[in-house]
Specification:
The chain has about 120 residues and is mainly alpha-helical. It has five helices and no strands. The protein has helices at about 1-20, 25-50, 55-85, 85-90, 90-115.
């Protein structure tokens, strides 16, 4: 569900920027991506992983993993957008293809690295 909401968020922002404001699709991704990451981090924190970690450290780890996933996603997006001119005019399609490519990476590392319980050592006197 969270991934779907994140996709919808990014697709909406991307579509609005491209269709209504004439922003280049690749440039628009630099706005739509951080918007979607913020939404998915909050929803994952609350619902998916029910995290009690420090929000600052956790959000930094989440953005790191999502940025690597975005590199995967954006690479696929750029390849499909440039290789198929019709997709340049319909950027949600390569967005979906790129999102699927990055999905498994993002979920696995979010589960193992981001939302795991903090492993801060407790020092006892």
């Amino acid at each position: 569900m969270v991934g779907g909401i994140g996709f919808f968020t990014e697709a909406t922002v991307l579509s609005v920027l491209v269709s209504l404001f004439g922003v280049d699709p690749i440039t628009a991704r630099f706005i739509s991506f951080p918007t979607a990451v913020t939404v998915t981090w909050l929803l994952n924190r609350i619902f998916s992983f029910r995290s009690r970690n420090s929000p600052g450290r956790e959000s930094a780890r989440y953005f790191l993993i999502q940025t690597i996933g975005a590199a995967i996603n954006l690479s696929v997006f750029i390849v499909f957008t440039m290789a198929f001119p019709v997709l340049y005019r319909h950027p949600v399609i390569p967005l979906a293809i790129g999102s699927i490519a990055a999905l498994l990476f993002n979920f696995y590392f979010s589960n193992k690295f981001v939302f795991r319980p903090d492993e801060s050592p407790i020092r006892r006197p």
